[in-house]
Amino acid sequence: MTQPANRLAPISSHYFADLDAKIARLSASGKQIIRLDVGSPDLPPPQAVIERLTEYASRPDTHGYQAHAGPEALRLAWADMYRRLHGIELDVEHEIVPLIGSKEGIFNLQQALINPGDIVLVPDPGYITYSRGAQIAGGEVYRMPLLAENNYLPRLADIPADIARNAKLLWLNYPNNPTAATASLEFFQKAVDFAKSYDILLCHDAAYTQVTFDGYRAPGLLEVAGAREVAIEFNTLSKSHNMAGWRVAAAVGQADALRCLYQLKTNVDSSHFLPILQAAVEAMTGDQSWIAERNLVYQARRDRVAQALERSGLKFCLPHASLYVWFATPDELPARSFCDQLLEQCGVSLTPGTVFGQYGEGYVRLALTAPLDEISAAMQRMEKEFAS
Ligand SMILES: Cc1ncc(COP(=O)(O)O)c(C=O)c1O
Predict the structure, then answer these.
(1) Within a 13 Å sphere around the CA of 310, how many CA atoms are in the beta-carbon half?
(2) Could you tell me the distance, in angstroms and rounded to a whole number, from the CA of residue 161 to the centre of ligand 1?
């Protein structure tokens, strides 16, 4: 029998793959399941983006391999977006590496930088690829608890000095998945100072910067003066432009780290399909006014969820960004049992906080990625369950 490599040992099967199988079984038995578990936007990108894709795909000369760094127009478009959002001027030659989705970059950066035994500081709960990428590279994961009492920010001062001295990477993600917490520029400044004092590469995953509510603006980590000497930021069109399936993202910032990532990638992938990259250029440089309207759609969904959680007496913080509502289970029920029960009894699928790490115990993540009427139906089922 074929044996897996040792490096696969710390990696269990993916929660969502197992969940898909369970939901398929329940659906086959006639249960109507409402899925609020995965954070995949249900709305499309603007028509102009789709038209740019089809226009380029119809040309005979757009089907070959592309340069590893993609067309210059793509890097210019990322630079344009960073100028518009954060007032930052990026060097398109050295400070931008296009990615095939940010998950790919988050994983591959660690293969490029981490030696066996290197420490990687990851938020817990957090996006799973930070720790999985570190473990596959042979790194040691140190979990920074994100707790409600600290507004889901890691307490950097609590990291033991011997851990910090041996750490090579520190992962942050704000607006946050799964807690929906946000971070201020002052917090980013502290993180940059910490990274500088311990010579750590600070990696900020900015997947949700453009999904914001109530007039909130999410700062970018590179807005901190001097940040790009020690930091890179991952950005993606998956959530900002409703393009999760298109796999378009970039890593920007500290040039030495990006050179290593790029060197690895030239050996792993061969860029992307040009019509998709051209459509991404349109997404980033075309009309952006629709994003505010799209965010109002998510905001209305968030408000419906907040209403139901309040009525049910469940503890949560009203999110001002991201695609998620993070709430405490009733009576401190284990997250997994609560979600199993909700799925089997109400046909509502949510994600247990423990999928994101041990400090997610007692919490559940609800994704706002279904139409309002479906969310409303799910909330009615939940309210009924809690009233009974
Ligand atoms: C925090 C975070 N980072 C990265 C990703 C992956 O994004 P992409 O689609 O660009 O791979 C996700 C997807 O859910 C996410 O929540």
Answers:
(1) 8
(2) 30
